[in-house]
UniProtKB/TrEMBL annotation:
<dbReference type="Pfam" id="PF03129">
    <property type="entry name" value="HGTP_anticodon"/>
</dbReference>
<dbReference type="InterPro" id="IPR004154">
    <property type="entry name" value="Anticodon-bd"/>
</dbReference>
<dbReference type="InterPro" id="IPR045864">
    <property type="entry name" value="aa-tRNA-synth_II/BPL/LPL"/>
</dbReference>
<dbReference type="GO" id="GO:0004821">
    <property type="term" value="F:histidine-tRNA ligase activity"/>
</dbReference>
<feature type="domain" description="Class II Histidinyl-tRNA synthetase (HisRS)-like catalytic core">
    <location>
        <begin position="31"/>
        <end position="114"/>
    </location>
</feature>
<protein>
    <recommendedName>
        <fullName>histidine--tRNA ligase</fullName>
        <ecNumber>6.1.1.21</ecNumber>
    </recommendedName>
</protein>
<keyword id="KW-0547">Nucleotide-binding</keyword>
<dbReference type="InterPro" id="IPR036621">
    <property type="entry name" value="Anticodon-bd_dom_sf"/>
</dbReference>
<keyword id="KW-0436">Ligase</keyword>
<keyword id="KW-0030">Aminoacyl-tRNA synthetase</keyword>
<dbReference type="InterPro" id="IPR041715">
    <property type="entry name" value="HisRS-like_core"/>
</dbReference>
<dbReference type="Pfam" id="PF13393">
    <property type="entry name" value="tRNA-synt_His"/>
</dbReference>
<feature type="domain" description="Anticodon-binding">
    <location>
        <begin position="134"/>
        <end position="191"/>
    </location>
</feature>
<dbReference type="GO" id="GO:0000166">
    <property type="term" value="F:nucleotide binding"/>
</dbReference>
Length: 192
């Protein structure tokens, strides 16, 4: 029952969130440390001027239990909950200790670039895909790779940004890739 009471704590008000944290019946030094840290984070969120409508306390979130050692967080696009979290992370006290003898506490995040850019494009905040690549050299036959690379080198030497498909595949799929990437010209070079 106490665990359920803990994970059910949710609030979008600074004062209510602190009151709910104070009301939790937890025991032990680690619990008190966590409660104090969360209240400090809430105070800093308020000090930064973040409106209450832009944050929520949710104690059911658990991330990376093997390396996060403090507060964890997730960000969502409120108007598009169907895409899930677009940025998540937390505090870790010694993750860098795997690579150095120094004790280096830190905070890290990861951004779901695919989710974020998909939504930005859907919202019309990004223009159509453009590419600096001007020409795509397709691959019809792996044995012709040297010829494809030589052609690409000649094009590049002529100032034409060129990409070479490095794995054989259906020609239609290669054309589709060029179209999606905004590559305007496609070279099909075969043995004939």
């Amino acid at each position: 029952a106490r665990i359920m009471a803990f994970v059910e704590v949710r609030s979008t008000s600074f004062d209510d969130a602190c009151a709910r944290l104070d009301a939790l019946d937890g025991r032990g030094e680690l619990f008190e440390q966590g409660r104090t840290e969360l209240k400090e984070v809430l105070g800093l969120i308020r000090a930064f001027g973040v409106p209450e409508s832009h944050f929520a306390l949710n104690l059911s979130i658990a991330r990376g239990l093997d390396y996060y050692t403090g507060t964890v967080y997730e960000t969502h696009l409120v108007e598009h909950p169907q895409i899930g979290s677009i940025c998540s992370g937390g505090r870790y006290d010694n993750l860098a200790g795997h690579y150095t003898k120094s004790h280096l506490p830190g905070v890290g995040i990861s951004i779901g670039a695919t989710r974020l850019f998909w939504q930005l494009r859907e919202a019309g905040l990004l223009g159509p895909a453009t590419s600096t690549v001007q020409v795509l050299v397709t691959m019809m036959d792996e044995t012709q790779l040297p010829a494809y690379l030589e052609l690409a080198t000649q094009l590049r030497n002529g100032g034409i940004a060129t990409e070479v498909v490095m794995e054989p595949g259906k020609l239609a799929k290669q054309f589709k890739y060029a179209d999606r990437a905004g590559i305007r010209f496609v070279v099909v070079l075969g043995p004939d």
